[in-house]
Amino acid sequence: MTLSQEQLSDPSVRAFVAAVNAGDREAFTALLAPGATMSDDGSERDLAEWTEREIFSSGGRMDVVSEAEGGRRLVADYRNETYGSMRTAWRFEVGGDGRITRFETGQA
């Protein structure tokens, strides 16, 4: 069973999931604080390059299975046209202005 986007507790994370699932680069970019960073499987990545490859040019989609820590930690079934489907963990840091300053993802 998955959680709908509307059920996600943190509004910034909810908007992140919605932007990913809609393939909406503009909304996604607006959610990120200047200088936002990310890692994948423990390795720092170039955020713009990674999101283009892993999300936008490959039809990325998240189906959230569970959330914790007020909605800032997710377990999701993530899929894209390059790698297929995999269980992933996501952790978000959100600044005082509600924009995402960092996210970390990797296989769960």
Verbal overview:
- The chain is α+β, with helices and mostly antiparallel strands.
- Helix content is 27%, strand content 44%.
- The chain has three helices and six strands.
- The chain has a six-stranded mixed sheet with strand order 2-1-6-5-4-3.
- Strand 3 and strand 4 (73-80) form a beta hairpin.
- The two termini are 17 Å apart.
- The model has no long low-confidence stretch (mean pLDDT 96).
Name some characteristics of this structure.
six-stranded mixed sheet, single chain, 3 helices, alpha+beta, 108 residues, 27% helix
Order of helices and strands: HHEEHEEEE
Low-confidence stretches: none
Judged by helices, strands and strand pairing, the structural class is alpha+beta
Task: Estimate percent helicity.
Answer: 25-40%
- Share in β-strands: 35-45%
Distance between the termini: 17 Å
How many β strands by DSSP?
A: 6
* Overall residue-averaged pLDDT value: 96
Shape: globular
* Main beta sheet strand tally, sense and closure: 6 strands, mixed
Radius of gyration, in Å, reads 12 Å
The helix count comes to: 3
Spatial sequence of strands, sheet with the most strands: 2-1-6-5-4-3
